[in-house]
């Protein structure tokens, strides 16, 4: 099957959020299963122009009475070898990655490209920026199409097309032959939206879980990944203790990394200083501002990590409400990495300044730092209002770090929750995190306290009521067979067996989605 994948972003070239990571991985695994795959995108910020490529054509597009010339660049993905086609115009390249004008023109560029270079079996668009392109490919090229909803809350601008007045995302869904979202639970959640429910009754609609590439995201590959994401310019081992590890020694290595980087934050500050000063023209990332510091405590003082885009969806309001109370009631620390909406960035700065010594807020987008936060944290949190799938929790677990998350969407599909009463019903041998239901500060507080109670504070209580494969009850969270150590191993195994693109079967499900689109289109 020959498949064209349309995307606004692709890691590591033009990656903003999890969509870029999925657009790196999905084409790779479709290709591995015998499909011919091309990825079509924009040359945002000249990132494709800055790597080896060839110019294969020029396309002339008329938009609102003005003519624009775009170079068609062909290259190969630097990590996967998948063919990439990028439309490049120096003026348009510098527009914001999500500028609606770009994607109004993108639709015509895609149609013009296929008119010039021939057809494919199926065209698959991802998220609202590709919605109008999917509609025009379906109508003008008469080709089978699919669209993947990565976040239905962001629908794009309203557009009149073929007598319909809809958002870009809705046009893509309406004109597609099949569509999907990125987890089974979220597929059921969004059927409450009348338009999606109607469309799901007349064409194939599925929830296909995202995954992560376990060859890239795993604790035994951490150093290589960090170096690669810094354009091979920054080696974390030169700044502080950093060491690859597996599930059997995670309990030994992780607390050392935590202490070396976050409890001695001068090392972290030096790394970020060098990151800020380096040329990032060939990689994704922005400068990072540091607010706050971590002081006091010792290596067994719990550290909570948080990595997300700075948008309302990710649960910042309950974080800002819950943590002042948590800091008053418990001895714990917090490290946050985020960039996005200004009021959220300001809230991160304020929290770090109010609780100096307990919080480090890193405001910026620095992909290598995500590995350090997942590695150095005892727990990570994902308190989202809604979450179609989420990759943060999968990446955290791949680094043997359990997750505190709200029980919605893909979070519910990917995290095995510790039972609410593990004394009466222990499942430490299976759990990979803690799920909480209610979106308020009390829900998040319960989730964090439940996690810390059974991995840090109540170790003696656990020994009285549960059995483990050990002789002595653990006195430290990091001892062999302690609850936290068991959860670390669970996380690693769960991601590898059930959540990796290598093993979760999702690439084959996308292939079946394309097959369903072809059948629906022609028959």
From TrEMBL:
This is Starch synthase. Residues 2-195 form the Starch synthase catalytic domain. Signal peptide: none annotated. It comes from Methanothermococcus okinawensis (strain DSM 14208 / JCM 11175 / IH1). Residues 300-452 form the Glycosyl transferase family domain. One of its GO terms (molecular function) is alpha-1,4-glucan glucosyltransferase (ADP-glucose donor) activity. It comes from the Archaea. Keywords: Glycosyltransferase, Transferase. Its EC number is 2.4.1.21. Transmembrane segments: none annotated.
């Amino acid at each position: 099957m020959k498949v064209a994948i349309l995307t606004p972003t692709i890691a590591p070239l033009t990656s903003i959020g999890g969509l870029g990571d999925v657009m790196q991985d999905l084409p790779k695994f479709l290709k591995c299963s015998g499909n011919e795959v091309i990825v079509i995108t924009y040359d945002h910020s000249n990132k494709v122009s800055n790597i080896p490529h060839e110019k294969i054509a020029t396309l002339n597009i008329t938009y609102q009475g003005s003519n624009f010339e775009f170079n068609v660049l062909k290259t190969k993905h630097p990590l996967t070898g998948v063919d990439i086609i990028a439309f490049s115009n120096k003026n348009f390249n510098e527009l914001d990655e999500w500028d609606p004008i770009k994607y109004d023109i993108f639709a015509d560029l895609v149609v013009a490209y296929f008119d010039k270079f021939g057809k494919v079996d199926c065209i698959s668009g991802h998220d609202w920026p590709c919605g109008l392109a999917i509609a025009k490919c379906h109508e003008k090229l008469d080709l089978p199409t699919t669209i993947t909803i990565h976040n239905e809350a962001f629908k794009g601008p309203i557009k009149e097309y073929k007598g319909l007045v809809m958002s870009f995302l809705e046009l893509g869904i309406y004109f597609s032959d099949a569509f999907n979202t990125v987890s089974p639970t979220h597929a059921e959640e969004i059927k409450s939206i009348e338009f999606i429910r109607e469309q799901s009754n007349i064409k194939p609609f599925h929830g296909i879980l995202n995954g992560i590439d376990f060859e890239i995201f795993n604790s035994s590959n951490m150093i290589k990944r960090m170096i690669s994401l810094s354009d091979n310019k920054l080696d974390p081992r030169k700044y502080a203790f950093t060491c690859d590890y597996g599930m059997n020694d995670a309990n030994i290595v992780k607390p050392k990394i935590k202490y070396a980087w976050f409890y001695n934050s001068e090392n972290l500050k030096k790394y970020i200083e060098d990151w800020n000063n380096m040329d990032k023209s060939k990689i994704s990332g922005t400068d990072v501002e540091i607010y706050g510091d971590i002081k006091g405590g010792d290596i067994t003082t719990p550290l909570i990590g948080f990595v997300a885009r700075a948008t309302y969806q990710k649960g910042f309001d309950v974080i800002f409400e819950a943590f002042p109370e948590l800091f008053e009631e418990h001895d714990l620390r917090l490290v946050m990495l985020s960039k996005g909406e200004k009021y959220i960035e300001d809230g991160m700065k304020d929290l770090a300044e109010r609780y100096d010594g307990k919080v480090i807020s890193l405001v910026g987008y620095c992909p290598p730092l995500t590995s350090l936060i997942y590695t150095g944290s005892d727990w990570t949190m994902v308190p989202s209002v809604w979450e179609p799938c989420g990759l943060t929790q999968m990446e955290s677990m791949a680094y043997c770090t359990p997750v505190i998350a709200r029980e919605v969407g893909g979070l519910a599909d990917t995290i095995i929750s510790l039972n609410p009463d593990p004394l009466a019903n222990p499942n430490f041998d299976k759990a990979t995190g803690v799920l909480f239901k209610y979106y308020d500060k009390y829900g998040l507080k319960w989730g964090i306290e439940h996690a810390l109670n059974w991995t840090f504070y109540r170790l003696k209580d656990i020994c009285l009521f549960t059995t483990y494969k050990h002789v002595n009850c653990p006195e430290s969270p990091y001892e062999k067979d302690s609850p936290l150590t068991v959860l670390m191993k669970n996380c690693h195994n769960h991601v590898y067996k059930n959540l990796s693109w290598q093993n979760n079967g999702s690439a084959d499900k996308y292939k079946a989605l394309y097959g369903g689109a072809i059948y629906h289109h022609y028959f």
